[in-house]
Amino acid sequence: MERLTARIGMRLMTGDEHSRDLDVDWSYRPDDPYAIDLDFSTFQAGTVWTISRDLLTAGIHAPAGEGDVHVAPFDDTRLLIALAGSEGVALLAAPAAEVDRFVGATAELVPAGSEHTRIDWGDGLEDLLTS
C-alpha cells in the first residue's frame, strides 16, 4: 500500500533558552485515511503521535481541536500544534506552507469525504472481535 511521507522541521517551544528544532517524520497511509502520524523518533525513540487529518486541515485556517491535540495558525508562516500527554503539554511550531502541502497531498491520495471507502471494515471488525 502506498504511503506518503515527508520530513518537516518543527520547533519545540519550551522557552527561549530551551527551545529546540526537531526533524519530524510525517506519514499518511490511505488504508488509515483519517490519520496522519508524526514520528518524533529522531528526538525521542518510539514517540509517534497520530493526529486527525481533518483537525490539521481545519487548524491551518483557524484554531481547532479538543482534548489532547490543538492546532492553530500562529502567523502567516507558522502553525502551532499543542500535544498534551501524561508528562505535560508540548507546543510545537511547524511551517504552515509545508503542513498545508502535506495535507493537500493526502487529499490527492484520498479525497475528503471518501475516507470510508478506503477502510477494510471486515478486517477491522475481525480484529476487534478477536482481541
Work out the helicity level.
Answer: 10-25%
Distance between the termini: 24 Å
SSE order, as H and E? EEEEHEEEHH
Determine the strand fraction and express it as a percent band: 35-45%
Q: What characterizes the major β-sheet? A: 7 strands, antiparallel
Cross-sheet strand order for the largest sheet: 4-3-2-1-7-6-5
Q: Estimate the global geometry from the Cα principal axes.
A: globular
Which segments are poorly predicted (pLDDT under 50) over 5 or more consecutive residues?
none
Number of extended strands? 7
Number of helices: 3
Describe, in plain words, how this protein is organized in 3D:
With 131 residues, the chain is α+β, with helices and mostly antiparallel strands. It contains 3 helices and 7 strands, in the order E-E-E-E-H-E-E-E-H-H. A 7-stranded antiparallel β-sheet has the order 4-3-2-1-7-6-5. The radius of gyration is 16 Å and the shape is globular.
Q: Short summary of the structure?
A:
The chain has 131 residues and is α+β, with helices and mostly antiparallel strands. It is built from 3 helices and 7 strands, in the order ββββαβββαα. 24% of the residues lie in helices and 38% in strands.
Chain-wise SSE layout:
Layout: E1 4-13, E2 20-28, E3 35-39, E4 48-52, H1 53-59, E5 69-73, E6 78-85, E7 88-95, H2 96-109, H3 121-130
Antiparallel strand pairs: 1-2, 1-7, 2-3, 3-4, 5-6, 6-7
For this entry, give a set of tags.
24% helix; 131 residues; alpha+beta; 7-stranded antiparallel sheet
